[in-house]
Design a protein that fits this description.
The protein has helices spanning 2-9, 15-29, 35-43, 46-49, 55-58, 82-92, 108-117, 130-142, 179-183, 284-293, 354-371, and strands at residues 65-69, 75-79, 99-103, 122-127, 149-152, 165-170, 185-197, 200-209, 212-220, 235-237, 245-249, 269-277, 297-302, 319-324, 327-335, 343-350, 379-384, 396-399, 403-408. α3 (35-43) crosses α7 and α10 (284-293) packs across α11. The termini are far apart. The strands form three sheets. It has a ten-stranded mixed sheet with strand order 5-4-3-6-7-8-9-17-19-18. The relative contact order is 0.09. It has eleven helices and 19 strands. It is of the alpha+beta class. It folds into two domains: 68-230, Rossmann fold, CATH 3.40.50; 235-371. The longest helix is centred in the C-terminal third of the chain and has 18 residues, at 354-371. The structure holds S-adenosylmethionine. S-adenosylmethionine binds at residues 76-80, 85, 102-109, 126-129, 132, 154-156, 171-172, 223-224, 226-228.
Length: 412
């Protein structure tokens, strides 16, 4: 009875309280580390920049607020999750008096940047979609951020007449680095971009050193894809003999679908690695390790409505995978008995060289466990397309339209 009365008379939670809770959570998770970004998050009323969402949803630390969807219900624009905004602002190292370009305009993040650069700074936000820029412009104006310049246009060309920028924050998933982003960045300036390399997206903070960009920090993230001139579609290789399996190649496609013609008819080889992952333990650097080590690295998605039993991945939507000759394999896991949520990693492979491929992938998983697990992860560098091989350093080179990206692994 007492509880019911208390619940009935307790005042509703205020936006300020929700904002405080959001900030506490972001500090706890390690996404928010600097007093400057904290002060900006505390000051700007996120819920007033996300009128599309109920109050509590606006302050949910890990949720984006979708502001525009396609006719098929796919998100085209959003105000990103506070977690992602916080760590990208930290990655950008944005401070007083800086000149900053934000690519992708939700309004709220531009207001945070305006708080960070202060009155002597300069903020430009651009979006390809006029509905998005109209919305951002209106909300920024309503809240007194009249100094933020909102521009409608394709990020592929950047904004030369507002350059050079001390920081460029790209907030749509990019497959390549537009030359304009490097050229419009001041020497030593930072480009923070959710970049897809071999199908894996990471928010990477790059520092400009002449014509090269060198990574400084790397974080896991997800974003709506870039549209316009630099839009890029993943290629899907469908092994014949079943409609169930899609092997996704985001950069070069290894092999021909017909190479895998008979793979699904062979018995599945299963190998276990002895490498275990505890509940909630990250293994994002394993993904990048396999993407570096395996020439035929790809990702695999399996149709949920077909279950032929040919493959049995632990994750049907996204598995690390590889193709070699007329065989393919994927990484899976099995629960450890008596362990609360822990798993052991394994490899399944099909095709005439399945056993060799499974063993090769398993060996790389073991070497990651021995040499890199818990380490800082790889470094990335971006060179202009056309840079000669002997000018590149790194263990894997990924060729894009405008750039050559290298991945190297410092000794952990
Ligand atoms: C995740 S939303 C931006 C979020 C925003 N920065 C925030 O949280 O406040 C991504 C935006 O990128 C935009 N976008 C996609 N491709 C673009 C391009 N080529 N040039 C400029 N904007 C683009 C989309 O229209 C979309 O509004």
């Amino acid at each position: 009875m007492t509880n019911t009365v208390e619940a009935a008379i307790s005042p509703e939670i205020t936006p300020e309280q929700l904002r405080g809770q959001m900030i506490s959570e972001l500090k706890r998770s390690g996404d928010l580390t600097s007093p400057a970004v904290e002060a900006a998050l505390r000051k700007v009323p996120r819920h007033e920049f996300t009128p599309e969402a109920p109050l509590e949803r606006a302050y949910a630390a890990y949720d984006a607020v979708v502001t525009k969807s396609s006719e098929h219900g796919v998100a085209m624009s959003s105000v990103s999750a506070p977690q992602i905004q916080a760590f990208m602002l930290e990655q950008g190292g944005i401070g007083p008096s800086m000149r900053v370009l934000e690519i992708g305009s939700g309004g709220y993040n531009a207001a945070l940047i305006a708080e960070l650069v202060g009155e002597d700074g300069q903020v430009t936000t651009m979006d390809i979609d006029p509905d998005v820029t109209e919305r951002a412009q209106r909300l920024l104006k309503q809240h007194g951020y009249t100094g933020v310049q909102v521009v409608t246009g394709d990020a592929a060309v950047g904004i030369a007449d507002r350059a050079p920028f001390d920081a460029i924050l790209v907030t749509a998933g990019a497959w390549d680095i537009a030359p304009a982003w490097r050229d419009q960045l001041a020497e030593g300036g930072r480009l923070v971009v959710p970049l897809r390399v071999r199908g894996l997206t990471r928010s990477i903070a790059f520092v400009r050193r002449g014509s090269r960009l060198e990574s400084e920090s790397v974080r896991v993230c997800g974003f709506v894809p870039m549209q316009g001139e630099d839009e890029h579609h993943t290629q899907v290789l469908l092994p014949t003999g079943t409609e169930e399996i899609g092997l996704k190649f985001d950069d070069e496609v290894m092999g021909d679908p017909s190479d895998l013609d008979n793979a699904v008819k062979t018995p599945r080889v299963e190998t276990w690695t002895g490498v275990t992952i505890g509940r909630q333990q990250p293994f994002d650097t394993l993904q990048l390790w396999l993407a570096t080590k395996l020439d035929g690295f790809c990702t695999m998605a399996v149709r949920d409505d077909l279950d032929t039993g040919i493959v049995a991945p632990a994750n049907k939507w996204f598995s690390m995978a590889a193709v070699a000759g007329n065989s393919f394999g994927y990484v899976t896991w099995r629960r450890l008995e008596g362990d609360d949520g822990g798993v052991e990693l394994g490899v399944h492979a099909l095709g005439t060289q399945a056993a060799e491929l499974a063993e090769q992938v398993a060996d790389h998983i073991r070497s990651w466990d021995r040499e890199q697990r818990g380490g800082p992860g790889p470094a990335f560098a971006v060179y202009p397309a056309g840079t000669e091989d002997d000018q590149l350093s790194g263990e894997r080179v990924v060729n894009k339209r405008n750039s050559r990206i290298t991945i190297s692994w410092p000794a952990a």
